[in-house]
Amino acid sequence: MPPRSDLEKPNVQKSEHEASFHENASHLSPENVNVKLANPLSDIPHEQLMVDGENFAKSHGLGHLSDLFQRGALVAQDPLAFEDLPLLTKEEKDALRREVTHKWDQPKMLYYLVILCSIAAAVQGMDETVTNGANLFYAPQFGIDPNTPDGDQGRNQWLLGLVNSAPYLCCAVLGCWLTEPLNRIFGRRGTIFITATFSFLTCIWQGVTNSWQHLFVARFFLGIGIGPKSSTVPVYAAECAPPAIRGALVMMWQTWTAFGIMLGFVADLAFFRVPDKPHITGLNWRLMLSSAGIPALIIIVQVFFCPESPRWYVSKGRYNKAYESLVRLRNNPIQAARDLYYIHVLLEAEKEIRRDRSPFLELFTVPRNRRAAMASFIVMFICGVNAIAYYSANVFINAKFTQIQALLASFGFGAVNFVFAFPAIYTIDTFGRRNLLLCTFPLMAIFLLMTGFAFWIPEDSQARIAVIALGIYLFGIAYSPGEGPVPFTYSAEAFPLYIRDIGMSFATAVCWFFNFVISITFPRLLGAFKPQGAFGWYAGWNIFGFLAVLLFVPETKALSLEELDQVFSVSSRLHASYQLRALPHNIKRHIFRMKVPDMPPLYEHDRLVGGPKVFSTDSENGSA
């Protein structure tokens, strides 16, 4: 969604219901007004909708399409009730019907855009993992070998962590917070072009560095290519996709990031045996780091062949361009008219809600928003996967693998991570976000302990290598459908519409900050705690993650805005106490298969007819 500060538009003629909404919105609390945002067109008579649609078209340079926007406004009120609208033509009804029955039958341009977003995700994955193999070579060359036998071992471990963590430090303190101004000024495509350009140039820059300090600076600027892109690309896909497949397309971000992670290991293997040339020392690691720039270059060439986000065009008052964009992304003009009118209505509503309020302050001062921010913080918390993604080759070498064996084993982890990301496309909307986390956090803790404890197996035993690799692969299998896709999906839906951009910036900044913490500390953890302690440390954080999700992260699967407001309006204290009571109940029912009576539901929308009402809010007293 466009940044809320994007909503400066020229004065236009407002319909009667828009004026009424604007008059009343300023008197609504953010928690109540989101109920209105669930569908601002509800309860408006069809006659008024047709008048509104015609006025909208005439007021925004689309007067020649007035009849189309009259029908589009009617469809926008209830997209599934089109069969009862006599004004629609047969072709229009066929297109709307096929949208439901054949949801993947979309224009080629939409799939071209999906390919763009998938490559952008793969760029990020490669940026993260090419350093896994490269640091085996540049660390000794630059005098920061973490395994050096002299007294500089501790210093070198910190410096290696600092160099590897540089992009994530930039993302946390600068990159993610550039998302809003970049999108406001340059649009979605422009932001993707700029970040891909940074990724390409800094990848080449990394390959020509001549000291660890120089490499640190190059990798720090790589964070400008990673941070805004990680926030913008999922939003761009969501704004361009039709509602029926929006969730699946947004999920593609994590799936193809996993592919990029695997591709990074492929690059490490491909360039492993490249020999040095005259006057070039370390050509293999230089090619590894530079290779991540290739898919970024593809994005640079490709991005402006895609249409800009229609929502961004509307935020700038460029309705003709928004309609042209939607026509390229939809099968029939009625779908484009429907979506454009609904985007306009939602943005007008959001614009009024934003009046005289700071979205960043409301993220933490409004209890409903603060609980969403806390839940997003928790799901973005440490689980330890980045230690494996960034340093698996070092871990395997500690297990007495050879360098090439270590990279091959690392590629196996990348392949497991990619393959097991696909089930999440189904399970995240059926099993639920919270349930996936509650099931996978304990498994990740167990497999990390398994990996760490395997280092106590004697070095001359083949079982040592097998158990270490198996533990890491099982960890990847547990991570990929759970903590892998859930954080970005959860954060994208937890926040109300009017602060969603700043909420996503906060969530992604948290994610990259913890990536930075893991990346900078893990080499030293390996040195000080040994692999047993290092993996045990992250296993402990997974147990903490399980408890934090259990107590403070509510389910958001398939909930409307109104239901999400109910969910996040339940006090943290009430939610935690209810879940503590529910834990033994669920263990008896689902693990021991015992017959136990149902617990009363926590939320109003789950309450059985005539059943006990447990839902409670404390917005008035502002408790967390």
UniProtKB/TrEMBL annotation:
A Gene Ontology cellular-component term: membrane
Start-end of Basic and acidic residues biased regions: 1-25
Q: What processes does the entry annotate via GO biological process terms? A: myo-inositol transport; polyol transmembrane transport
UniProt keyword Kinase present: no
Origin: domain of life: Eukaryota
Disordered: annotated segments: 1-29
Catalytic reaction equation(s): myo-inositol(out) + H(+)(out) = myo-inositol(in) + H(+)(in)
Q: Where in the cell is it found?
A: Membrane
UniProt domain Major facilitator superfamily (MFS) profile: residue ranges: 113-557
The membrane-topology field of this record reads: Multi-pass membrane protein
- Give the residue spans that cross the bilayer: 109-126, 158-178, 190-208, 214-236, 248-267, 287-306, 372-392, 404-428, 435-457, 463-481, 502-522, 534-553
Q: Which GO terms describe its molecular function?
A: transmembrane transporter activity
Signal sequence, start to end: none
Q: Which UniProt keywords apply?
A: Membrane, Transmembrane, Transmembrane helix, Transport
Q: Which family does it belong to?
A: Belongs to the major facilitator superfamily. Sugar transporter (TC 2.A.1.1) family.
Protein name stated in the entry:
Major facilitator superfamily (MFS) profile domain-containing protein
